[in-house]
Amino acid sequence: MRLAIIGSGYVGLVTGACLADFGHTVVCVDKSASRIDTLQRGKIPIYEPGLDAIVAQNMRDGRLSFTTDIAGSVKGADAVFIAVGTPSRRGDGHADLSYVYQAAREIAQALQDNTVVVTKSTVPVGTGDEVERIIHERRQSSVIKVASNPEFLREGSAIQDFKHPDRIVIGVEDEHARAVMAEIYRPLFLNKSPILFTSRRSAELIKYASNAFLAMKVTFINEISDLCEKVDADVQEVALGLGADNRIGPKFLHAGPGFGGSCFPKDAVALVKTAQDCDSPLRLIETTIAINDTRKRAMARRIIQAAGGNVRGKTIAVFGLTFKPNTDDMREAPSISIIQALQDAGANVSAYDPKGMDQARALWSDVAFHASPYEAARNASAICILTEWEQFRALDLQRLEKVVAQPVLVDLRNIYSEEEVTRFGFAYSGIGSRPRTPTHFTDLAAARERLVEAV
Ligand code: UDX
């Protein structure tokens, strides 16, 4: 099939590359000439594991190309995917659909009859109707149909998610669109991934409902983890027991500093707005958003406490800045609120991230960035792990202990256990369990003195 993807950002690029890999002929379009130029030279403007290899292979095989020529790209296409951004609209949190509607206006004239237009961008219920109206208005014909095909790609594992999805959701209102979409995804269907055909509006809502539910699940375990600390239970044990119930499932039960990223925060707010407009409020999701916002700053208070209660003029080392591992994306990362709160308390923040440093530099001029965790930890009154990058799982704690001002480790992702860290002289503060040993340095020092006296 011949496919055009409008928008060569994260979703458009992954979708285009993977569809080309299925054997379709794909052209990815973007307004940004510099982005297209970068892609034509075989460079990938985002960090996504495995994407560069798929792009290179399919470019070599002649199935994947890049262009700024929107009209030329859609001519002769069996389907045109709209994969442009839908950021939060400034001021009210509704999804900003101006890029989607602009793309619809731009492709309308160039489309051939029977091309299926597919909204891949995350769009509120009813957007497909409006896209169809815009196209029909400009062509004075109604043969072009719009389908909804939401993506469920996680940054960092987007290729895997595209090629082995739990389900493919396709919202269509007519038989031709259904047949074209079935043909596009045939390789996955043969691979036993279920294709779920729904109405267009249901497909649009499935995407928002999925993200909102997952955000709520993460927030649920985060609140349970706070309770665990109060009642001397362990959130990791609780999550294990909870997730073993098939009706609940084990995923998205890792307690942490709160969810972030380009989707959960923005989509949860947009869904709440839609629901309020329809006089059908989603109070669970409203509360989820509020809890998550407060949680991030509460994490900073936890760090300050662990560092001894007063961090004015002291250095706090932050390991991990991106909202999750295996991405360079800083959007809505918990690190943003946490670092702000640490700085408000007078701390000097010193940071290291394996991939996010370029984006982070654009956010902060007053954070000291370092080339390794060991440099970032120099003279620190506390080290805090904010993102669970693989390379933080096997830190040389002995080496770290020698360079810090106070051996305090605040592990907001629970990648260490208290036992393994305290062996190296660190006070440890994780998430969702009451520590057996003192969690901050002053207590630790006092405990050591008591021990020496007792001996
Ligand atoms: C999400 C959805 O998973 C994906 O289907 C959708 O298309 C886009 O949004 P992504 O934003 O890449 O993907 O990240 P995800 O892995 O879902 O994590 C979102 C946030 O929740 C991150 O901040 C992550 O750290 C946090 N999280 C996730 C937890 O704190 N605990 C968990 O158990 C899982």
Multimerization state: single chain
Corresponding CATH superfamily of the largest domain = NAD(P)-binding Rossmann-like Domain
As a whole number of angstroms, the C-alpha radius of gyration is 25 Å
Strand order of the largest sheet: 3-2-1-4-5-6
Instruction: Name every ligand kind in the structure.
Output: uridine-5'-diphosphate-xylopyranose
Please give the alpha-carbon distance between the first and last residues.
Answer: 78 Å
Total strands? 14
What kind of sheet is the major sheet?
A: 6 strands, parallel
In what range is the share of β-strand residues?
Answer: 5-15%
Q: Looking at the structure, what is the overall shape?
A: elongated
Task: Please supply descriptive tags for the structure shown above.
455 residues, alpha/beta, Rossmann fold, six-stranded parallel beta sheet, 19 helices, 14 strands, 13% strand, elongated, binds uridine-5'-diphosphate-xylopyranose
List the helices and strands and how they pair.
Blueprint (H helix, E strand, L loop, with lengths): L1 E5 L3 H12 L3 E5 L3 H8 L10 H10 L3 E4 L2 H5 L4 E4 L15 H11 L7 E4 L7 H13 L5 E4 L9 H6 L4 E4 L3 H10 L1 H5 L4 E4 L1 H32 L3 H9 L20 H14 L5 H24 L8 E5 L14 H11 L3 E5 L4 H7 L4 E2 L3 H4 L3 E6 L11 H7 L4 E4 L6 H5 L4 E3 L11 H14 L1
Bound molecules: uridine-5'-diphosphate-xylopyranose.
Uridine-5'-diphosphate-xylopyranose binds next to helix 10.
Structural summary, described in words:
46% of the residues are buried. The longest helix has 32 residues, at 200-231. It is elongated, with a radius of gyration of 25 Å. Helix content is 45%, strand content 13%. It is an alpha/beta fold. Helix 10 (200-231) packs across helix 12 (264-277) and helix 10 runs parallel beside helix 13 (283-306). The strands form 3 sheets. A 6-stranded parallel β-sheet has the order 3-2-1-4-5-6, sandwiched between helices. It has a 6-stranded parallel β-sheet with strand order 11-10-9-12-13-14. The chain has 2 domains: 2-198, Rossmann fold (3-Layer(aba) Sandwich); 234-454, Rossmann fold. The chain has 19 helices and 14 strands. The N and C termini lie far apart (78 Å). The structure holds uridine-5'-diphosphate-xylopyranose. Residues 151-155, 211, 214, 218, 252-254, 256, 259-261, 263-264, 323-324 line the site of uridine-5'-diphosphate-xylopyranose (UDX).
